[in-house]
């Protein structure tokens, strides 16, 4: 069975949706950031302090490992589309779903303290969305808006 892989900008709901979806479908869930933190015993902030490139290499390692899994629900870091190799790995055994959420909605509840790229403030999200939206569209098999209830988006994914 293929993995279901969620991509999208920070705060779009990937992690929350992945956990609920996994519960509903009785499938294992994996988050690329959590996977890297556990594997390398370093926080995302510590990795970024070494350099962004250091973190991005670990992220690619995670995608490579995940390509070997089966039937998982996978939530990814927002920058996973920055390297097309990541998407190649994730597509090997996965259906890619772009969770697209309006930035104004994200700004209401995004956690900035654990996200190094949001150090300059949550407004940075507008720039990232502008830079990455097309890459998310190009990478995905399905494009879904998260501007409804979480239950509805989960039903849409299952459908
Ligand atoms: C990043 C998103 C984060 C995390 C890292 C970099 C990005 O993941 O991977 O801070 O480049 O957008 P979330 O999208 O889960 O916040």
From TrEMBL:
One of its GO terms (molecular function) is ATP binding. The keyword Amino-acid biosynthesis applies. ATP binds at residues 11-16, 115. PANTHER family: SHIKIMATE KINASE, SHIKIMATE KINASE 1, CHLOROPLASTIC. Binds 1 Mg(2+) ion per subunit. Keywords: Amino-acid biosynthesis, Aromatic amino acid biosynthesis, ATP-binding, Cytoplasm, Kinase, Magnesium, Metal-binding, Nucleotide-binding, Transferase. Substrate binds at residues 33, 56, 78, 132. Pfam families: SKI. It is found in: Cytoplasm. Catalyzes the specific phosphorylation of the 3-hydroxyl group of shikimic acid using ATP as a cosubstrate. InterPro entries: P-loop_NTPase (IPR027417), Shikimate/glucono_kinase (IPR031322), Shikimate_kinase/TSH1 (IPR000623). It catalyses: shikimate + ATP = 3-phosphoshikimate + ADP + H(+). Its EC number is 2.7.1.71. The lineage of its organism: Bacteria, Bacillati, Bacillota, Erysipelotrichia, Erysipelotrichales. It comes from Thomasclavelia cocleata. Monomer. Its cofactor is Mg(2+). This is Shikimate kinase. Pathway: Metabolic intermediate biosynthesis; chorismate biosynthesis; chorismate from D-erythrose 4-phosphate and phosphoenolpyruvate: step 5/7. Mg(2+) binds at residue 15. One of its GO terms (biological process) is amino acid biosynthetic process. One of its GO terms (cellular component) is cytosol. Belongs to the shikimate kinase family. Its main location: cytoplasm. It is an enzyme of class 2 (transferase). It comes from the Bacteria.
